[in-house]
Amino acid sequence: MWNLIWRKRIQKMNNRNNNYVIIDIDDVLAATVPEWLKRYNRKYKDSLKMSYVRDWNISKYTVPECGDKIYDLLESKTFYNKVKPLPNALEGVGKLRELGFPIVYVTGGKPEYSTYKFKWLQKHNFWNQNDHYVQTSSKHLIKGVLMIDDNYDNICNTSAFGLLMDAPWNSKFEFKNRVMGWHEIIQNIDEYKENFL
Ligand SMILES: [Mg+2]
Question: Separation of 19 CA from ligand 1 center, angstroms?
Fold first, then answer.
């Protein structure tokens, strides 16, 4: 008897806790790479375009005197001041929330600078009081039903249903559930839901 009650309770708890939508921030909600390249090109007098970046390791495309130092450009308190939200992103997150999915923003980067990214979410109205914010590059640690990310490895390593946000750095991968932008997610959410509900 008690066994059955507990089993039901656990089931209920699992159902409630498992329907998170895991949303990446950089280049899913925020146009991070365009601002990054602007800063890089200005500092190193280069003309690197986003469309040339065909690999996750952006340092492959920088001038020799820069190399890995391109990552240092992200270590700035003001970086996110100029970063714009991507089209339809706010509407898309609102739609997911409206459908009853708790939102968990999961983002990599250095913890010291995470606070500026969080402030960016607030500034652009992405942050609601019931949302969650997690700073980690090991995104597979986070449980959820749906993940939206532009990093192919994150999408492959999650147990959630993954939607790969199209970007030049992931275009070499064959992936069925690639989306061209939030307009597609908004349009097809009912169809995607069949895969995880
Ligand atoms: Mg990203």
Answer: 21
Q: How far is the CA of 93 from the centre of ligand 1 (A)?
A: 15
CATH of 18-31+83-193, one of 3.40.50.1000, 1.10.10.60, 3.40.50.2300, 3.40.630.10: 3.40.50.1000
Please tell me the distance between residue 118's alpha carbon and the centre of ligand 1 in angstroms.
14
Cα 43 to averaged position of ligand 1 atoms, centre (Å): 23
CA of 152 to the centre of ligand 1 (A): 10
Per-residue HEC secondary structure of the chain comes to CHHHHHHHHHHHHHHHHCCCEEECCECCCECHHHHHHHHHHHHHCCCCCHHHCCCCCHHHHCCCCCHHHHHHHHCCCCHHHCCCECCCHHHHHHHHHHCCCCEEEEECCCHHHHHHHHHHHHHCCCCCCCCEEEECCCHHHCCCCEEEECCHHHHHHCCCEEEEECCHHHCCCCCCCEECCHHHHHHHHHHHHCCCC
Cα(53) to centroid of ligand 1, in Å?
14
pLDDT string in tens for the chain (197-residue length)? 556 665 555 455 445 567 999 999 999 999 999 999 999 999 999 999 999 999 999 999 999 999 999 999 999 999 999 999 999 999 999 999 999 999 999 999 999 999 999 999 999 999 999 999 999 999 999 999 999 999 999 999 999 999 999 999 999 999 999 999 999 999 999 999 988 88
**CA 167 – ligand 1 centroid, Å:** 9
Separation of CA 32 and ligand 1 centre (Å): 8
